Amino acid sequence: MSLRQALLRDGLAVCSLLFLLLVLLAALLAPWLAPQDPLAPDVQNKFAVWSAEHWLGTDHLGRDVFSRLLYGARCTLGFALLTTVFTLLAGILPGLLAGVLCGRTETLLLRLCDILLSFPAEVLILAVTGMLGAGPEKAALACLLAKWPWYARMMCGIARQYADTNAVRFARVMGHGLPHILRRHILPRVAGETIVLATLHTGSFILTLSALSFLGLGVQPPAPEWGAMLGEARNALLRAPWLMLPPGAAILLVVAACNYLGDCLHDALEGRCGDEGKAVFS
Amino acid sequence: MTTFLEARGLCKSYGRPPRPVLRSIDLSLPRGVIWGLLGESGSGKSTLARLLLGLERPDAGQILLEGEPIRRWRSRHPGGMSVVFQDYVTSVPPQADVAAIIAEGFPPGAPRPDSAAIHALMDRVALPRFLSGRLPHELSGGQLQRVCIARAIAARPSLLVLDEPVSSLDIAVQARILELLQDLAKEMTCLFITHDVQAAVHLCEQLIFLHQGRIIASLPREELFKTDNPHVRDLLACTLVLKDF
Q1: Which of A5, A109, B79, B188 gives the lowest tally of CB atoms within 10 Å of its CB?
Q2: In this structure, is residue B82 part of a structural domain?
Q3: Using one digit for the tens of pLDDT, what is the confidence trace for A117-173?
């Protein structure tokens, strides 16, 4: 059974995928879909409840919550996806090289990863953000610095497992170089695992970046971002508790969809790869 | 006959404390001869093959191919040496089809082989052409090992190492693969590693016997049953002979 067939057999996985695609599409089309300007205040209309004009009401400055939610998706998902891509690149390349080359390169990388991983990720992210200052790009950089060793270590182990096969030994005997071995033997085999890890970690990065924005270390006002919207709603918790719902539910649903899709990809891959898949994820 | 491969004083140990697997191996293989490397399991046959292929470095000693160290010789002769492993399942990338697997056997840097070249190789190892688009898990063990052999001879290597290529195949397939190898190996220096004396005698002109990491005998096939080496005689005595019950 192919990966696509396995995915299509799981109704919830298909729903998760469709939901994520829908959210991404909504984020991309936000300027055309948003009924109001997300930054335009209307203090006479603050804390308005849901209506035909303001589908999800207005916040403490009278800004349209639905429009801010749409624009916020751009920031939240955009930074989460960029962080995932750059963290993957920063972790996978050295990890794969170390796994294939072995010897001193592997030892050096693994010890460096051990040192960085000995710090709790959240503490490291807060410390780096504290040093660099507030801002979404700095929060994303902090996430990258905290998470790349994890990917590098994981990829090093996977690459080592595949580099130690007769197929790679044959390529070495023939005189094929490292680029050929990576392209033909290692990358096609780690691609599946990488997609699963990326899907799972996108959800994790959404949560971390939202948490940093919630604490005032990520996206700065008045820019819309789901974590920042949640932080602003906290200040008006007693006056308008419903303001917590749209950004909170958006984060919850997107992260849950990412995690479920990642789990499903993992199960499908494990079923497809048999023992190899199990070895990677156990 | 000119020497093609020469090994001097090869030693290799594994583990801590070091457990010697090969002890002072001296070897000289002339060009164009099929050599058999025999010994019981654990005698160091596969370790010696890995050293000769440049997959591992010896702790001591030197390997020269046409008078050059392996790495330099390989950079001057890409695709000049090749190998067929016992475990055919891990010998091929699982996501590649038969044509792509065989194409990897062409020398690095050479133009991408066309389908005619792939089909010619498949014909040589008696693989039906319609299998060229199949994935490894869609082939039988015998077919997959033939794919590995086709890949190994694609570059017309000067040195071909066959590391127990028939050990994990059923007996009928073994016989067909041995016939095929006998035909193909005439064109190159070939090292056939096995613990199967009958297969080695069938295929090889010269036989080298390894015991506990040392070469204990090196003799032509015709003199095999005349030797008085006790380890060789033990190995010959273990060979099953079919009787008429």
Answers
A1: A5
A2: no
A3: 898 888 889 999 889 888 888 999 999 999 899 989 989 988 888 888 999 999 999
Interface mutation target, options A164, A166, A193, chain B, most CBs of B under 10 Å: A166
In a domain, B34, yes or no: yes
Total domains present in chain B: 1
For β-strands B81-84 and B206-211, DSSP reports them as unpaired
> Residues of A numbered 188-217 whose beta carbons fall under 8 angstroms of chain B's beta carbons: which are they?
188-189
Cβ-defined contact of A166 to B108 (cutoff 8 Å)? no
Please choose, from the candidates A115, A141, A110, the residue with its C-alpha nearest in 3D space to the C-alpha of residue A127: A141
Q: What is the mean pLDDT of each run of 10 residues along chain A (282 residues)?
A: 74 91 94 90 86 87 92 92 93 89 86 89 88 89 91 90 90 91 88 83 89 88 89 87 92 92 80 44 34
Judging by DSSP bridges, how do beta strands B206-211 and B214-220 pair with one another?
A: antiparallel
What phi-psi label fits residue B57: left (phi over 0), alpha (psi between -120 and 50 degrees) or beta?
beta
Distance CA A97, CA B65 (A): 29
pLDDT digits (tens, 9 = 90+) for B186-231: 778 889 998 888 888 888 888 999 988 999 888 888 888 888 888 8
Partners of A174 on chain B (C-beta within 8 Å) are 78-79, 81-82, 104-105, 107-108, 155
Query: What is the bridge-based pairing of β-strands B3-14 and B60-65?
Result: antiparallel
CA distance B52 to chain A (A): 10
Map out the domains of chain A with their CATH numbers: 3-28+63-281 (1.10.3720.10)
Asked whether the beta carbons of residue B96 and residue A189 sit closer than 8 angstroms, the reply is no
Q: How many residue pairs bridge chain A and chain B with CB atoms within 8 Å of each other? A: 59
Output the domain CATH number for residue B40: 3.40.50.300
CA A169 to chain centroid, in Å, comes to 35
